[in-house]
Write a structure and sequence with these properties.
Number of domains: 1
Number of strands: 0
Shape: globular
Order of helices and strands: HHHHH
Radius of gyration: 16 Å
Structural class: mainly alpha
Length: 124
């Protein structure tokens, strides 16, 4: 399961990308909302294949949590948001996709960190 963590991190970013391309006007792969998270993802993937794998795992967990929070709360019409999110079934569907693509990474990373905690030599 754990060799799949980098692939699950990519899936997480793809959920963000699909949401951005479909739901935000004028977005491309090089738009900051998609490209900067890609740079962060690439840094985590590089770390995963070094002795700093634990840092990468924690980074992937934080990445997934932040993205899940973003998928849930940025669709709500909250007065603290600097924008008024569209309240349509299409918009909700893309946020649901964005949120669901975070779950495999969150689950797998949590399991990996728990197993590593019980056996510190594993996964280094």
């Amino acid at each position: 399961m754990f060799p799949w963590l980098p692939a699950l991190a990519v899936l997480s970013w793809l959920g963000l990308l699909v949401h951005n391309l479909a739901d935000l006007p004028g977005q491309t792969l090089l738009s900051p909302e998609s490209f900067l998270p890609l740079v962060l993802l690439l840094a985590l993937l590089v770390l995963w294949f070094t002795p700093r794998r634990l840092w990468a795992a924690w980074g992937m967990l934080v990445w997934g949590v932040l993205n899940l929070i973003g998928a849930v709360f940025s669709v709500l019409p909250l007065p603290v948001l600097p924008f008024d999110p569209e309240q349509s079934a299409r918009h909700y569907a893309f946020h649901a996709l964005y949120g669901v693509t975070q779950l495999p990474l969150l689950i797998a990373t949590t399991v990996w960190l728990r197993q590593r905690g019980s056996n510190p030599a594993e996964g280094c």
